[in-house]
Specification:
The protein is of the alpha+beta class. The protein has a domain at 29-94: Trypsin Inhibitor V, Chain A. It has helices at 2-15, 41-50, 89-94, and strands at 31-32, 54-58, 62-67, 73-74, 79-85. The strands form two sheets. The chain has a three-stranded mixed beta sheet with strand order 2-5-3, covered by helices on one side. Strands 1-4 form a two-stranded antiparallel sheet. The longest helix is centred in the first third of the chain and has 14 residues, at 2-15.
């Protein structure tokens, strides 16, 4: 029994504080959240999906806020919450 414990200890000492995820670099791929504030909801959702992210919509019209914020690094498949408002006549004329 002592011999098997020594083997485990030596493997632990060799690997240090590494977790299994540290040993598989392909699992550490991250996605950068694109900036979709100010875009129509459909365009924003398409860009987020193209980035490999899921979308949770709150409202319709033009994106006013998103969580996590643009530029954040997240795991592919994570959900971005998008809050939007219906564009006023003035805003829609600017596009």
């Amino acid at each position: 029994m002592r011999g098997s414990n020594a083997s485990v200890l030596s493997e632990s000492a060799l690997l240090g504080d590494l977790s299994p995820a540290d040993l598989r670099p392909e699992d550490r791929t991250m996605a950068r959240v694109p900036d979709v504030v100010g875009l129509p909801v459909r365009t924003a959702a398409r860009r987020l999906h193209e980035a490999g992210l899921r979308v949770e919509l709150d409202g319709s019209g033009v994106v006013r806020k998103m969580v996590p914020e643009a530029g954040s690094m997240v795991s592919p498949g994570d959900t971005v919450r998008v809050a939007s408002v219906v564009a006023s006549a003035d805003e829609s004329e600017d596009d």
